[in-house]
């Protein structure tokens, strides 16, 4: 048996695999999120630890976890966990969707003009390095105490094993990694006033990166000393979970954020199109991503505002019919946007409202707006990376057939869903644990999952969607100078 733990933004998920790699059990515990100021997004790492304890306890109640042979970790990228010399947390973790460090992005690229060639990425506020520059400027007393900077899942590892280690895929999202060479960049660290001594050690995602401490093992009911795999960022782990490890394979994730991900055999940076180029968690592989910051988060926000649950809103839209040539258009930039705009100040908007529009029209606009944003991301990926023929859909939003029909038609690409796709990162983490434990090879373990449904582009939707996407693409530049958030 192998255990996968995925530290997400909205909760911690766990997956337990049996001896042959099939899902035996899973559990989830929610996490609170704090927005103390505009653009800020933070979490208390102690909440991560409590939620991790909860999901392990849930599995322990249902399964004999004494037979677990290894643990794997995946987690939200880019977060900054700042520790002092005694490994005490100095302040709440600054998360991936935090937009406060826009000015520091410009400063970072000015301080190290080779930044884009070293990291393969534009400096964006969500990345880790600009956050440290922000702390240095606005919280100098905290920065002076920083002796170690860890990513969220790697802080969990420190608690579990006592080891400060990160994997290549997660480290690539810090802007401190030489992504092509797969090692820390002294130049990028120096540009933020840090040194390699303040970074975790690096390992490939399939390697052992610590062993479970005896006291934690006793509390969790697991064998002491079992290996903990280096693991992966959430998206790279999701790729491993569905078997996306062959060059050209691609998937789309409808989670809190939305991601289009394609696996590569080489480092293929394209920062000019705001495409992310990162290491894969599988040795000798890389990947590219486009990212929209508010995907399922947009529907969750609208459900809260509308006073209804998401399932009810989607059912109401289904009854109303999804094809429409009129109605409002929605910009899903509730937390700014990455691909293709790289604009932390971008904000959301409904455009084209009339007195005849109702709740279903608004829901349609949200679903379509996320689909259009992801279509923009797909175009950015293909600008220099070649055509992507088909995609697998994973994440919580992939449970909605209506959303996937809309998405397939907006992307003009066939989509498929797979068994277990909704827990892809946790499943990927468990698969990495299996490999690190010596219980399976990469090829044998990272197999594709069975297809559960297929969604082809719908000709009845294509025309209306293309007309509305034309409006969507005009709205952002037209409103950019008028409804920006302060950054």
Overview of the structural elements:
This protein is an alpha+beta fold and 487 residues long. The protein has a domain at 2-242: ATPase, nucleotide binding domain (Nucleotidyltransferase, domain 5, 2-Layer Sandwich), CATH 3.30.420. Helix content is 37%, strand content 20%. It has 17 helices and 24 strands. The strands form eight sheets. A seven-stranded mixed β-sheet has the order 18-19-17-16-22-23-24. A five-stranded mixed β-sheet has the order 3-2-1-5-15, with helices on both faces. Helix 2 crosses helix 4 (128-138) and helix 11 (296-306) packs antiparallel against helix 13. The radius of gyration is 21 Å and the shape is globular. The termini are far apart.
Question: Characteristics of this structure?
Answer:
alpha+beta; Nucleotidyltransferase, domain 5; 24 strands; 487 residues; seven-stranded mixed beta sheet; five-stranded mixed beta sheet
Q: Which CATH class of the domain at 2-242?
A: Alpha Beta
Determine the CATH topology of the domain at 2-242.
Answer: Nucleotidyltransferase, domain 5
| CATH architecture heading of the domain at 2-242 | 2-Layer Sandwich
The helix tally amounts to 17
Topology:
Elements: E1 2-7, E2 11-17, E3 23-30, E4 42-43, H1 45-62, E5 70-75, E6 81-83, E7 93-94, H2 102-111, H3 115-119, H4 128-138, H5 140-143, E8 148-150, H6 152-161, E9 165-167, H7 168-171, E10 177-178, E11 183-184, H8 186-190, E12 201-203, E13 208-211, H9 214-220, E14 227-229, E15 232-233, H10 234-242, E16 250-254, E17 258-264, E18 276-279, E19 286-292, H11 296-306, H12 310-320, E20 329-331, E21 349-351, H13 359-385, E22 391-394, H14 401-411, E23 415-418, H15 424-436, H16 442-445, E24 451-455, H17 459-479
Parallel strand pairs: 1-5, 5-15, 9-12, 16-22, 22-23
Antiparallel strand pairs: 1-2, 2-3, 4-7, 6-8, 10-11, 13-14, 16-17, 17-19, 18-19, 20-21, 23-24
Helix pairs in contact: 2-4, 10-15, 11-13, 12-13, 13-14
């Amino acid at each position: 048996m192998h255990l996968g733990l995925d530290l997400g933004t909205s909760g911690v998920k766990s997956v337990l695999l049996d001896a042959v790699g099939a899902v035996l059990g899973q559990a989830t515990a929610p996490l609170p999120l704090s927005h103390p100021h505009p653009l800020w997004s933070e979490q208390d790492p102690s909440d991560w630890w409590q939620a991790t304890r909860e999901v392990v306890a849930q599995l322990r109640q249902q399964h004999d976890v004494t037979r677990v042979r290894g643990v794997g970790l995946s987690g939200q990228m880019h977060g900054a966990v700042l520790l002092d010399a005694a490994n005490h947390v100095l302040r709440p973790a600054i998360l991936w969707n935090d937009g406060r460090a826009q000015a520091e992005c410009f400063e970072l690229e000015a301080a190290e003009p080779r930044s884009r060639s070293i990291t393969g990425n534009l400096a964006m506020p969500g990345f880790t390095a600009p956050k440290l520059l922000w702390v240095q400027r606005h919280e100098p007393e905290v920065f002076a105490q920083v002796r170690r900077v860890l990513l969220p899942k790697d802080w969990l590892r420190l608690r579990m094993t006592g080891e400060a280690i990160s994997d290549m895929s997660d480290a690539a999202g810090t802007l401190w990694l030489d992504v092509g060479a797969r090692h820390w960049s002294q130049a990028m660290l120096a540009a933020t006033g840090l040194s390699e001594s303040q970074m975790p050690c690096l390992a490939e995602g399939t390697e052992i990166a610590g062993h479970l401490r005896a006291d934690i093992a006793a509390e969790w009911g697991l064998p002491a000393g079992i290996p903990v795999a280096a693991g992966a960022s959430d998206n790279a782990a999701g790729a491993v979970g569905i078997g996306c490890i062959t060059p050209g394979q691609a998937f789309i994730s409808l989670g809190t954020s939305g991601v289009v991900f394609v696996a590569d055999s080489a480092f293929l940076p394209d920062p000019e199109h705001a495409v992310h180029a990162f290491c894969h968690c599988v040795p000798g592989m890389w990947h590219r991503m486009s990212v929209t910051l508010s995907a399922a988060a947009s529907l969750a926000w609208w459900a809260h505002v509308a006073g209804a649950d998401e399932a009810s809103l989607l059912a109401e839209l289904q009854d109303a019919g999804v094809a429409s040539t009129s109605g409002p258009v929605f910009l899903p930039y509730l937390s700014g946007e990455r691909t293709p705009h790289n604009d932390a100040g971008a904000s959301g908007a409904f455009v084209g409202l009339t007195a005849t529009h109702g709740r279903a029209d608004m829901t349609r606009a949200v679903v379509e707006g996320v689909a259009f944003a992801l279509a923009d991301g797909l175009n950015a990926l293909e600008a220099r990376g070649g055509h992507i023929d088909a995609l697998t859909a994973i994440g919580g939003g992939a449970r909605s057939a209506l959303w996937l029909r809309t998405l397939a038609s907006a992307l003009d690409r066939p989509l498929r869903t797979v068994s277990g796709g909704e827990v892809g990162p946790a499943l990927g983490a468990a698969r990495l644990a299996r490999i690190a434990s010596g219980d399976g090879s990469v090829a044998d373990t990272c197999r594709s999952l069975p297809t559960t449904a297929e969604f082809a582009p719908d000709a009845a939707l294509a025309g209306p969607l293309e007309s509305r996407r034309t409006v969507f693409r005009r709205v952002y530049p037209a409103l950019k100078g008028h409804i920006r958030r302060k950054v």
